[in-house]
Design a protein that fits this description.
3 domains, Secre_tail, six-stranded mixed beta sheet, Immunoglobulin-like, signal, 2 helices, mainly beta, single chain, Por secretion system C-terminal sorting domain-containing protein
C-alpha cells in the first residue's frame, strides 16, 4: 500500500510539472531591443516570432488603439499554426500578437507583444542665440556679433546616431568624400558656429543605421558674423548712460515719449526685446514726437537712444 501511494504521489508531481511547463512565451531577435515587450521595425522588413515546443499552436493578432482598455477583438491568423510566425513592417505594424498552445491536457496563451513602427521623427534643428548678440533678418538668416557664437542641436538626439554637419548647402545628400560643405571631424548631435556660413546636418537613425535623413535646405540657418550696429549698441558701455532720460508713460499701451526739451533731437532710437532682438527703429526722432509701440507684444523692452553727440542712453519700459 505504501509503495502504491509513493507511485501515485510521483505521478501527481509529474503531471503538475508538465502543467507548470505549459507556459508559452514569445521571443524574436528585436523584441525588447528598443522598448520592453515591443518589436520595433525599421521599414518593411520581416521579423520571426517563436515560442517553445508544444503539441499545437494558434497565433492571434489584435489591432492597437490608444484607448484603454483595448476593445479590438483578438482574431486567429489563418494558417498560423506552427511554432513560429513571420510578420512584416508593412502589414503588421501597430498590432499585438500572442500564441495559444496545447500540450496534452494543458492549454495556455502567451503574454502579448506589440509590433510597432520605428520610434521616428523627421530631423529638426534647434538654434540657441546669446541675447543681445544677434539680429533676425527673417527667412532663416541672422546677423551675429563678431566673437559671439550660435549653438545648433538635433531636436531628437536619442533617435539619430552619427551626424554630418554642413557649413554650406551641399550639392546633394548623402555626403560625398571631399565635399567642401562638410565640417570635418564633427559627428555629434550638436555644433557651435563661430564663423559665417549656412548650417544644417545629415544623420542616420541609431536604431536603423541604414535609415538616414537630410535636414533639408529650407531648414538650414544662415549666419553672418560681423560688427553690426546692434553689436555696438549692446557693447559700447563707455558711451551708455543708464536711466538718464525721462521715459513716459511707463507702462504704456500705445504711445511712448523719451527725453526732455533740452535734448531736442535723437539721431536714432532702437527698441529691443529682452532677448536682444530689434523690435522697432526710428531715425531723427524729436523729443516731443510720440513713438507708437501699439504693435509690440506686451512685455518688457529696452530702448536705446543715441543723440547727435554719439551718446547712447538705455532705458527699460513695459508694453501693456
Amino acid at each position: 500500500m505504501k509503495t502504491k501511494l509513493i507511485f501515485l504521489a510521483v505521478l501527481f508531481m509529474t503531471l503538475m510539472n508538465m502543467k507548470a511547463q505549459c507556459n508559452p512565451t514569445i521571443t524574436s531577435p528585436r523584441l525588447g531591443v528598443k522598448f520592453p515587450d515591443k518589436i520595433v521595425f525599421c521599414n518593411t522588413e520581416t521579423e520571426t516570432l517563436s515560442t517553445q515546443t508544444f503539441g499545437s499552436y494558434q497565433w492571434y493578432k489584435q489591432q492597437w488603439t490608444w484607448q484603454t482598455p483595448n476593445n479590438n477583438p483578438w482574431t486567429a491568423i489563418p494558417g498560423a499554426t506552427s511554432q513560429t510566425l513571420t510578420i512584416n513592417g508593412n502589414d503588421d505594424q501597430l498590432y499585438y500578437f500572442k500564441v495559444v498552445v496545447t500540450e496534452g491536457d494543458c492549454s495556455a496563451e502567451s503574454p502579448a507583444v506589440m509590433a510597432d513602427g520605428f520610434a521616428y521623427a523627421l530631423p529638426a534643428m534647434l538654434s540657441t542665440f546669446t541675447p543681445g548678440t544677434y539680429q533676425d533678418l527673417g527667412d532663416g538668416e541672422y546677423n551675429i556679433c563678431a566673437g559671439a557664437s550660435v549653438r545648433f542641436d538635433d531636436v531628437f538626439p536619442d533617435l539619430y546616431g552619427n551626424h554630418v554637419w554642413y557649413r554650406c548647402i551641399p550639392s546633394s545628400p548623402p555626403p560625398s568624400p571631399g565635399d567642401p560643405c562638410v565640417i570635418n571631424g564633427v559627428t555629434g548631435d550638436s555644433y557651435t558656429a563661430t564663423d559665417s556660413g549656412v548650417f544644417g546636418f545629415y544623420a542616420c537613425t541609431e536604431y536603423c543605421p541604414d535609415q538616414c535623413e537630410f535636414l533639408g535646405t529650407g531648414n538650414f540657418i544662415k549666419l553672418n558674423f560681423g560688427n553690426f550696429e546692434q553689436c555696438t549698441l549692446a557693447t559700447d558701455e563707455a558711451k551708455r548712460k543708464e536711466n538718464t532720460l525721462k521715459i513716459y508713460p511707463n507702462p504704456t499701451a500705445q504711445f511712448l515719449y523719451i527725453g526732455k526739451d533740452s535734448d531736442k533731437k535723437y539721431k536714432e532710437v532702437t527698441i529691443m526685446d529682452m532677448s536682444g532682438k530689434v523690435a522697432l527703429q526710428k531715425n531723427s526722432h524729436h523729443y516731443s514726437e510720440p513713438i507708437d509701440v501699439s504693435r509690440l507684444v506686451p512685455g518688457n523692452y529696452i530702448i536705446l537712444s543715441k543723440d547727435t553727440e554719439g551718446n547712447t542712453y538705455k532705458n527699460k519700459f513695459i508694453k501693456k
